[in-house]
Predict the structure of Oxidoreductase ylbE.
Amino acid sequence: MKILVVGANGQVGKHLVNFIQKKENMEARAMIRKEEQASYFKDLGAEVAVADLEDEIEKIAKAAEGVDAIVFTAGSGPKTGKDKTLMVDLDGAVKTIEAAKQANVKRYVMVSSFDTSREAIQSAPDAFAPYIVAKHYADEWLRASDLDYTIVHPGGLTNNPGKNQVQLGEKVDRGEIPREDVARVIIAALENNATIGKAFKAVEGNAFVEDAIKSI
């Protein structure tokens, strides 16, 4: 399975490409914004595609040609304004979904935010609300597509070493999760077709990732 990792140069993305390249049945294509970011991924033996989420859909579709799945791990980051949140977390996600259709890629995994419900939007602090809004509508666009999607809603992201132990479910208490373990959850979701059409939250827990995925 060849997987296009969108947002590969991000923290979750780097873990994900690294894990994919260690799998015998998977290979990664890292989508990055700048050629100077390529060496990290080439050293792992991964393919590289240079494309920006603010580019036209056709360029993103070209980056997706020949892959079996797309994983959207991109994010505008906490230090950007509402404009970048709109352009990356919403429009970038929507363009990637449309690019998947153009490139005939059916499998799509979205890394979303922990709670993208209407209630979460209404209760979010002013500075965080635009991000939740962007993720809410990106998730809705994906659900309305004909793609074989999975939506992962991770808890608060940390750089703690992953333990390969999580709690997954439609309703779980808010908590944290290492970025490394988010990457493991993504891979497990790609390997299990029972996750198609599902959305679930992911936080630290006591179940090994592969076992937790089976309960989704």
Summary: The longest strand covers residues 148-154.
